[in-house]
Amino acid sequence: MKHxxxxxxxxxxxxxxxxxxxxxPTRIKAIEAVLPPSKSxxxxxxxxxxxxxxNIAADFLSLHFALESGAKLPVFTRFEGPVTVRLTGMxxxxxxxxxxxxxxxxQREAGIDIRQIPEGQANITIQAVSQKQIHRILPQAxxxxxxxxxSLEEYRRDRRxxxxxxxxLRSRERIGIFIPYDASPQEIRDCLHEELAQALxxxxxxxxxxxxxxNDDNFHTVLxxxxxxxxxxxxxPELQSGMTQEQVAALLPGVLTRLNPRGDRIAAQPxxxxxxxxxxxxxxxxxxGAGSARRINAANEAARIxxxxxxxxxxxxxxxYLLGRMGQFDDPEAAQQQYALALKYLDATPGTEVQRAHITxxxxxxxxxxxxxxxxxxxxxxxxxxxxxxxxxxLLATLLLLKSEALRQAGQIEQARTVRLDSIGWAxxxxxxxxxxxxxxxxxxxxxxxNTGG
Length: 454
Description:
By secondary structure, the chain is mainly alpha-helical. The chain has helices spanning 2-16, 24-34, 53-64, 93-109, 131-137, 152-158, 185-200, 225-234, 245-259, 276-285, 293-309, 314-327, 332-346, 353-369, 373-390, 393-409, 413-451; strands at 83-89, 114-116, 124-129, 144-147, 175-180.
């Protein structure tokens, strides 16, 4: 989606920005001056979970008693007592503001006694480092969390020791989180949400969860109502570090009845585990080489496994979404068929509004290419509302640019311009101001060269 969004941004700025072809530094400053400022989200409006407490209890146990690798965790662990957080390294301004906002949410929604301290030893240390430093240790990681380390240097030195092994943990006292300072504001914020939540609670990800950041499909970017309920339950007074899975399971029904009484009135659905073969196929489908035969074969394999499992939830939809993304440039018509298949299952699964909004961005782009912008407006408006609530600025910017083009095709030129400008502020947060400015500078330079015959 990032490349699609930037492409639309270039068109948008070409239409609303006039800069003389002067030297590069002056041009960049001039563009900065006319660009709308980076936007930020207001008060969080998470959607409450729409599943039964019986299902949520099963999810809680799966999240807390296993790692993503499948390794089992022998006991439940959490912080006992107030939790302190310290931000170190080279954090940009947006990182501090997003951390403050997240800590407020954790206090209010999860009931966790957590606060930031300016110095000294904290329970959780968040170190802002470069992407290059992270990739030297974990080449595929955007950010990561580890036990019993407070700096990247300490973790690099002790990563082979038992203190750095989650399966050896019996209580949580000191956790390190490493996040790149040289990513976009949204990428930094997304890392804060996922890694701080894992530092406090679940260490596993489950593809079966439609409404959670604890899912490797990456549709959700900030902690959801479900996630906050899981964290609130983890810090319930009935539980404590060192409990076995059986002990926690015996107490969870009472905890969830107290915290989420509406969940007792919702019928439980059969819990279906996700086979490792499906997970492996999806991970291969997400690999490098867009549209490669290996990725397409892997997505088709995941679709076959989902059919064999008898799934009708978002896991059945996900491979079709991936196939649509991989084929949308080579065979747009076939890609639309894959998106339609994905929507068939998503429409029947509660809590999948965010996934459907992602597909709207793809189907609306296809409609615009066919000149059917006016027809795409209702779906775009719905998706924009969903992404505003989900706080995904990158996709929100793209959806707004699609809406701008749809309005232009419908003859609503002034409204199209207003929406286009609105999208740029969200793009600066979602994609990063530097990327937006560089893209616009390059586009204007190319336009100037074309107009002067260069």
